[in-house]
Amino acid sequence: MPFAQRELRWGLACGIGPDGHWHGWFDVQVHADALRRLGPHPDQPTAEVIGPSPPGRWHAAAARRALNWPRPAESSK
Questions:
Q1: Distance set, CA 30 to CA 13, 41, 57, 73 (Å)
Q2: What are 40-51's pLDDT values in tens digits?
Q3: Coil, helix or strand for 8?
Q4: Three-state SS for 57?
Q5: Helix (H) and strand (E) counts for the chain?
Q6: What's the DSSP call for residue 68?
Q7: Dist. CA 46–CA 7, nearest whole Å
Q8: Could you report the per-residue pLDDT of 64-73, keeping only the tens digit for each?
């Protein structure tokens, strides 16, 4: 792993969603200095936007997939 344990923080939140099922969310944070070793920081030209944004429909499709994942198993009757 490219990071030392002291450079990472993570957490888990879970609870019952509006559909009555349990849901969990992971939060992973990496210290900025650790990321700089890998290169993604504003001082590098590749960290800047160099082209047009993807079409809005890509965001909409990703949001739909995120809301439906994981898809609950269909119950057979």
A1: 18, 13, 30, 34
A2: 666 666 656 677
A3: strand
A4: helix
A5: 2, 2
A6: T
A7: 23
A8: 877 776 655 5
